[in-house]
Amino acid sequence: MKGTWSRRKQAAGWAGYDMEDIVLTPVTRTRTASGGYTQAEGTPRPIQRFGLASSRYQGGEELVSTSADGTTHRLVMVLIGPIGCLIDVGDRLTLNGIPLFINFIRYRPDGVYAEAVLHGG
Question: Where are the domains of the chain?
């Protein structure tokens, strides 16, 4: 029953977040012979429920996130999911018509926190 208690505790901690059913699509990035990259979308993951926390602005300033390759992206949302959710850096999603991708994931004892940034921006 420990797992059930843990899930209840997680759900209670997310009570202040908007919950959304989200489909994440994995993307495979492959290096080409010319030195560039190609990207191919994989099979979409099953629908999963995440809490959403807006992180667009903090103290009146727009937040930015920098990828490992040095690219700067405008941070739009943080997805909060349960331990064991299916998510990976590079996954794409569309939220309210806005194309996003997962730029960073932090695993915590109370859940998974993933930064979603504007795709192509």
Answer: 2-118
Q: Quote the CA–CA distance of 119 and 121 in Å, as a whole number.
A: 5
Q: What one-character-per-residue DSSP string does 78-112 give? A: EEEE-TT----TT-EEEETTEEEEEEEEEEETTEE
Task: List residues bridging with 117 in a β-sheet.
Answer: 75, 101
Tens-digit pLDDT profile for residues 48-85: 999 888 765 445 455 566 666 776 666 678 899 998 99
CATH number for region 2-118:
2.40.10.370
Distance between CA atoms of residues 103 and 45, nearest Å: 17
Query: Model pTM?
Result: 0.70
pLDDT score at 106: 92
SS3 16: coil
Q: Are 81 and 88 in contact (CB under 8 A)?
A: no
